[in-house]
Amino acid sequence: MGTSKSKVEKVRRIIDHADDETKEAVKSGEISINKAYQETKEPKILIMGGVDDKLSTLLNKIDGTRRAVEKARATWLLEAVQRKKKESTKASLKLLAEEIERALLEIK
User: Fold this and answer.
1) Rounded Cα gap, residues 39 and 22, in angstroms
2) Mean local confidence (pLDDT), 70-78
3) pTM
4) Domain count within the chain
5) Per-residue pLDDT for 64 more than 60?
6) pLDDT tens for residues 12-42?
7) How far, in Å, CA of 62 to CA of 72, rounded?
8) CA 89 remoteness from chain centre
9) CA 18 → CA 3, 15, 21, 31, 58, distances in Å?
10) How many Å apart are CA 13 and CA 5, to the nearest integer?
11) Distant-in-sequence, close-in-space partners of 7: CB < 8 Å, separation ≥ 6
12) What does the buried/exposed string (b/e) look like for 7-28 if buried means 16 or more CB atoms within 10 Å of the residue's CB?
């Protein structure tokens, strides 16, 4: 009668990751290898899930911040263009007014 590869991997995981109390419970037969493996495996998943959630939240914040920065930059550029247009319009109107004044002076 042999030992399956799966059972060997479970025992390795228990040895490497379980706390001393769990290891002693398996040795004494108080809990099965499978139960100890599940208890050892689950916290790792929960911890990783917590990391994934935090990472996901952080990435969403970064993405939201990036979008906010891009929107602010686009707004600033639009306002700059509009200011430039107003300045150009004012300058153009001023030049036009000067030309009209010169033309009127020439007529007199």
Assistant:
1) 9
2) 82
3) 0.39
4) 1
5) yes
6) 888 988 888 889 999 999 999 998 888 887 5
7) 15
8) 43
9) 21, 6, 8, 13, 30
10) 12
11) 33
12) eeebbebbeeebeeebeebbee
Lookup result for tokens 């990435």: 59
Cα 21 from Cα 28, distance rounded (Å): 11
3-state SS string for 69-89: HHHHHHHHHHHHHHHHHHHHH
State how far Cα 35 lies from the chain centre. 36
Domain range holding 73? 5-107
54 CB-side CA count, 13 A:
6
Q: Is 77 exposed, middle or buried (0-12, 13-18, 19+ CB in 10 A)?
A: exposed
Closest CA to 16 of 40, 46, 43, 50: 40
- How far apart are alpha carbons 95 and 8 in whole angstroms? 90
C-alpha separations of 87 from 17, 31, 79, 84, 101 in Å: 70, 82, 12, 5, 21
